[in-house]
């Protein structure tokens, strides 16, 4: 079927032509309810409920959903499907199951997470079950283990490089929106509030900062360590009680492991900027993430299996893992700082700032995020352990 943009009634029709999916829903199509829940920037998402079960249907649009004059290739849905397939066995049950991908409609049909809530929303409403970040740490360790050169023969990594090399449109978004635009005047950056303008101008004239950002640009584009989720913010996670799931892998690319870690921690830290009284909760989540990530990473990668470190014995491997984790922590620190800055003054800012009730407190929260982000980017090479990162974040 040639591509067209689905609405509720054409999706119902499409589903009736896919017997396996229709039988998951059960009953007759007239008994199904279909509602659109799109809240991301890029795609359309429908949830379909039937008497026997429910489905989540996500379709790419030929443009950015929230900016119809910004064209965007449909193939991002293909990369999301590939990412889900490449990581599903490793991360299960921490992601929804992909049931079907239609490569003409650029449509993913997956497990419907219900009654799950987007993590960012749950954080804002104070409805989280503390400790959720341990699942995310485990998720990153497992997805990395499944796709790294240390644990897989190099042919596996070469295939991943080839499978995701074409995801350039979304990598371009990362390069522009995270790694470049916030540090220069750019029409995509929304105008900051007047009180923040001097801070933004200072960041955009800060040469030492720009050199440090340059190093992170180089890391992002050349350190092809493992398959990244690529967009691991708190809006790409859904949770209900202790069931925590990662969604929205369309930005997948081979890259530095600290990029996924840094985006996640950056969004936690941004939440604490918007809600300063929650500094201890966020510190505990950052700690839970890092401890679970490093523990699982060590356990999974110490057995090897790849061509990288093939000559090392157990003792050497332990030392090499320590050195590797040290460099991942430094990347994490830098990318965390970048994320804090771009989500504060760039395109696609975070809702966490709505927690600030007065305009003054909102500006103060944003200023703190910019200042912290800058410190993290500049001081990343001096961070040697989690305590060092937490000290730079000054959340406690
Ligand atoms: P985008 O790429 O446009 O950001 P997302 O994959 O983040 O799209 O999905 C947008 C929204 O759709 C999510 O914030 C969530 O509310 C809902 N959603 C996405 N996947 C699922 C799912 N598997 N089950 C239930 N709801 C989902
Ligand atoms: Mg999303
Ligand atoms: Mg929702
Ligand atoms: Mg997305």
UniProtKB/TrEMBL annotation:
Known EC number(s)?
A: 2.7.1.100
- Could you state a single Gene Ontology molecular function term? kinase activity
Q: Could you tell me which Pfam families the record lists for this protein?
A: APH (PF01636)
Which keywords has UniProt assigned to this entry?
A: ATP-binding, Kinase, Nucleotide-binding, Transferase
InterPro entries per record: Aminoglycoside_PTrfase, Kinase-like_dom_sf, Methylthioribose_kinase
> Which Gene3D superfamilies does the UniProt record give?
3.90.1200.10, Phosphorylase Kinase, domain 1
Superkingdom, according to UniProt?
Answer: Bacteria
Q: Which residues form the Aminoglycoside phosphotransferase domain?
A: 33-265
The entry describes its oligomerization and partners as: Homodimer.
* Protein family: Belongs to the methylthioribose kinase family.
Q: What PANTHER family has UniProt attached to this entry?
A: METHYLTHIORIBOSE KINASE
Which protein, by its recorded name, is this?
S-methyl-5-thioribose kinase
Origin organism is Gluconobacter frateurii NRIC 0228
């Amino acid at each position: 079927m040639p591509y067209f943009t689905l609405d509720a009634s054409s999706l119902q029709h499409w589903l009736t032509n896919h017997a396996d999916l229709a039988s998951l829903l059960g009953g007759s199509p007239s008994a199904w309810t279909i509602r659109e829940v799109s809240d991301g920037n890029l795609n359309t998402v429908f949830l379909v409920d039937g008497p026997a079960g429910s489905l989540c249907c996500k379709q790419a649009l030929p443009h950015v959903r929230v900016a119809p004059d910004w064209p965007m290739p449909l193939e991002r849905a293909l990369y999301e499907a590939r990412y889900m397939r490449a990581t599903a066995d490793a991360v299960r049950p921490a992601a929804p199951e992909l049931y079907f991908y239609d490569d003409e409609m650029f449509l993913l049909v997956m497990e419907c997470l219900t009654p799950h809530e987007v993590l960012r929303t749950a954080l804002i409403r104070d409805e989280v079950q503390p400790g959720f970040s341990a699942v995310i740490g485990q998720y990153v360790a497992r997805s990395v283990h499944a796709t790294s050169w240390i644990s897989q023969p190099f042919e596996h990594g070469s295939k991943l490089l080839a499978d995701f090399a074409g995801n350039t449109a979304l990598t371009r978004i990362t390069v522009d929106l995270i790694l470049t635009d916030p540090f220069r005047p750019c029409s995509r950056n929304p105008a900051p509030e007047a009180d923040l303008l001097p801070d933004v101008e200072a960041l955009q004239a800060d040469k030492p900062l720009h050199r440090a950002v340059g190093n992170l640009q180089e890391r992002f584009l050349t350190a092809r360590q493992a398959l990244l989720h690529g967009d691991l913010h708190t809006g790409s996670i859904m949770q209900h009680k202790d069931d925590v799931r990662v969604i929205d892998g369309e930005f997948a690319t081979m890259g530095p492991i600290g990029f996924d870690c840094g985006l996640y921690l950056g969004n936690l830290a941004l939440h604490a900027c918007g809600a300063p009284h929650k500094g201890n909760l966020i510190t505990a989540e950052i700690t839970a993430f890092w401890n679970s990530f490093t523990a699982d990473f060590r356990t999974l990668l110490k057995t090897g299996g790849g061509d990288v470190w093939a000559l090392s014995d157990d003792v050497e491997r332990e030392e090499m893992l320590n050195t590797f984790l040290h460099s991942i922590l430094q990347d994490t620190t830098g990318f965390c700082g970048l994320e804090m800055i771009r989500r504060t003054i760039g395109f696609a800012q975070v809702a966490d700032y709505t927690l600030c009730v007065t305009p003054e407190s909102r500006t103060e929260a944003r200023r703190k995020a910019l200042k912290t982000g800058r410190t993290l980017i500049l001081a990343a090479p001096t961070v040697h352990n989690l305590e060092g990162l937490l000290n730079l974040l000054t959340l406690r």
